[in-house]
Design goal:
mainly alpha, 461 residues, Growth Hormone, Chain: A
Amino acid sequence: MTATAGPNAGNRLDDAPLSRFHKKLALYSSGGPFLDGYVLSIIGVAMVQITPQLKLSDSAQGLIGASALIGIFLGAFVGGWLTDKFGRQLLYTIDLIAIIGCSIAQFWATDPVWLFVLRLLIGMAVGADYPIATSLLAEFTPRRYRGPLLGGLVVMWFVGAATAYIVGEVLLSSLSDDAWRWMLASATLPATIIVLLRHGTPESPRWLANKGRTEEAEAVLKKVYGPDVTIADLPDEAEERENVDLKAIMRSGYGGRMLYISVFWTCSIIPLFAIYAFGSKILDALHLEGGLANIGEAMITVMFLIGCAIALLCVNRMGRRPLVIHSFVWSGLALLLLGLFPDASSGVVLTLFALYAVIIGGTQILQWVYPNELFPTEVRGSAVGLASSTSRIGAAVGTYLVPMALTSWGVGGTMLAAAAINVVGAVVSVLWAPETRGMALHECAALAPRSAKPVSRPAGV
């Protein structure tokens, strides 16, 4: 960066009002989470037809259900590295074009291996979008709105999931045995719309400045924030930390942050993804069958949405640290009760599932907030991608094991295992979760945040 930033550099950007540009960017960035929720949920509905037609075993069901998660593991890491190397804007649409092509190809899948490969590739493209879109949004958004807008991306995950259930049920009731093919190909339509909307999105000025492309960075700043904003208004992040790259991230002070983000993210999504991939089987095991099971799935999805909306209202008022701890503790209690009383009445079962869905919203929105706040610009995409990848290892394994766990342990044991995962998330959050509320982005990323509450944590958190 050629300009020297003063002590209040970045305040004009971090304290800027929320503009129409920020709102549009948040909406377009939410396309990735929407597609993630859609493709991961539509498979649960489609499996009703896929399982008998392709003669899938429990193991094959688990592999196909987890295939997109495995793809996300691969795509998030690669996408994060690419977005730090080549920029956010270029890859912002390429990944969605890949989703379109693979979604169409699923229509002609004739065997489990072909279907697994295609969903693996779709997962890779979805995973790549996580660090690309969230880094771009984080680097443009004023501090007051950063938490709600980043967290709001998770709301779109559940909107995508709810849409998938609606589309799936409509296609099941109106088409023949090939309805599952139309379900899996249906992601093509929203992906195409999102590609068109994202066209023309500018590159992140923080990334451009970090790469020495100061004239381009200043042009973007003037276009977005006004003619009187210059490159000097960007904070010099090098003053806030030691130099760090992806190869050194685990050895540097950021290794502790990566450890916490990976563990907390993994614990927050394993039970949730298992419920979405095999929601019908779980509800059937809890004696909710047929129409009641469909109503239960729809209600739980609505509760997830409500929970995320409530968490968005709390993320700045409560702070990040209290929100993540309370979310893990109380949602884990709901899972514990489901595990202890699997034969409870339908009303009790649905109530406990609804409580879990509402309360877990805190951990869900922070999956997008924490990783983007705790790492500097030159490795933000890589760090988000790496954390997303590591979290998907556990999520993929958990999803793969759900059908076998239901067979071997029963629904009670499966729910107790999910509760135990929440306990792990709560413990590591009590020990290591930082507080970043009210900080500028470069202050959050600094190795010793100025206003963070001192807590016992691994180095660099």
